[in-house]
Amino acid sequence: MKNKTLLIIGLVWPEPKSSAAGTRMLQLIALFQKKGFAIVFASAAQESDFSYDLKSINVVTKKIVLNSNSFNDFINELNPEIVLFDRFVIEEQFGWRVYENCPNALRILDTEDLHSLRLTRQNAVKKNIAFELSDLLASDIAKREIASVLRCDLSLIISEFEIKILVETFKIDPNLLHYLPLSYDFILENELLDFHQKKDFVFIGNFLHEPNWDAVKQLKEKIWPEIRNQLPDATMHIYGAYPSQKVLQLHNKKEKFIIHGRAKNANEVIVNAKILLAPMRFGAGLKGKLLEAMQAGTPSVTTNIGAEGIKGNYNWNGFVEDDFLAFISKAVLLYCEEAIWNESQKNGFEILKNRFKSDLFENLFLDRVCFLQSNLENHRNLNFMGRLLLHHTALSTKYMSRWIEEKNRL
């Protein structure tokens, strides 16, 4: 009988109340538990006061150490059937050890988002130049990220747009990729507040994530002053985990630009807001705040980068505008016009029901995992470049890691 153990190696301990990444991790855990897997979550990061209590959902936790042979002993004893790497930097650090000690374990990479896409876009914004997909080909982060994708048996991608980039720009074999977005199942339409019960504008996002800090700066400097001129009774509420001093300094009660910091209940603050504003100038993956707004019955105004990977062929639950003058105009229109607001709310429900319900994806993913486990050798033989990279990267990373190990002993 096969050992039905999944080892997740986390970049951080999940914080679902701090970011969509934490929510995503808990969704993956629940998915594998439904299939009967015992789950061990290991990380070299420090736990915080906001880390989720994984033991409460029957997940075994293990603190591990970077560049240490103790991990080899740990994984040998555990002998997991599947190893899931939480982002490519974790695969870089631990992938070769998994490869050496558990060669028959299925290796899955959860990308979260394409880091290279986010960082290349960020660089373009800072330089005030237009982003081109071809810019990714010159990115050192992209080279590392794509190498990691190739070394793994399967990579989970949360955005269809990013699947397209990987296949068309980087020429990745689609058999190495699997589309598995965030899922949102609970829409209590009849229990939500209506147009007249909601008030004000909201933004929410983890401030350790650079796109969120940039979006708040755009709100403060370019967007909110104009909205406030037209809607003097409205308030802009800013929520987010880990606000730095530079974020807190933007607080201005007189301007009705309120920095609240971490939300005790993110869903509650989004539910009570009339509109969520998300002027994202760069980023990647799926923006959890926008999906949560749909779930809460709160229309939104965002940019094309904000809406990327979410709307598909459906109408947005509000407006998508890259030009900030149009962004401001649509935000005011949506705030004032009940019929447009109601229609936008319905659009959000349609997107969630047709594109993000878990039953659209769960069985397809689990079937894919089962198929790969049964055909692993053949699957790997068809990915020769991945095997080549795994061989050479394992050697180079291994000796660097061993050097650090020896250095730490001195």
Q: What would you say this structure looks like, in words?
A:
It comes from Flavobacterium psychrophilum (strain ATCC 49511 / DSM 21280 / CIP 103535 / JIP02/86). It is an enzyme of class 2 (transferase). Its EC number is 2.4.1.-. Keywords: Glycosyltransferase, Transferase. It is a single chain. The protein has 410 residues and is α/β, with parallel strands linked by helices. It has two domains: 5-183 and 358-409, 3-Layer(aba) Sandwich (Rossmann fold); 189-355, Rossmann fold (3-Layer(aba) Sandwich), CATH 3.40.50.2000. The chain contains 16 helices and 13 strands. Helix 3 packs parallel to helix 5. The mean pLDDT is 93.
Order of strands across the main sheet: 3-2-1-4-5-6-7
Sheet of most strands: 7 strands, parallel
CATH class of the largest domain: Alpha Beta
Distance between the termini: 44 Å
Residue runs with pLDDT of under 50 for 5 or more positions = none
CATH architecture of the largest domain: 3-Layer(aba) Sandwich
Compute the CA-based radius of gyration. Answer: 22 Å
Strand content: 5-15%
Chain-averaged pLDDT = 93
Tally of helical segments: 16
The backbone outline, from C-alpha atoms, is globular
The helix/strand order is: EHEEHEHEHHEHEEHEHEHEHEHEHHHHH
How many domains, in number, for the residues?
Answer: 2
Brief synopsis:
The protein is α/β, with parallel strands linked by helices and 410 residues long. Helix content is 47%, strand content 14%. The protein has helices spanning 20-34, 70-78, 88-101, 115-127, 140-151, 160-169, 210-230, 245-248, 266-272, 288-295, 304-307, 324-336, 338-355, 362-374, 376-381, 384-409, and strands at residues 5-10, 38-43, 60-63, 82-86, 106-110, 154-157, 177-179, 201-204, 236-239, 257-261, 275-278, 300-302, 318-320.
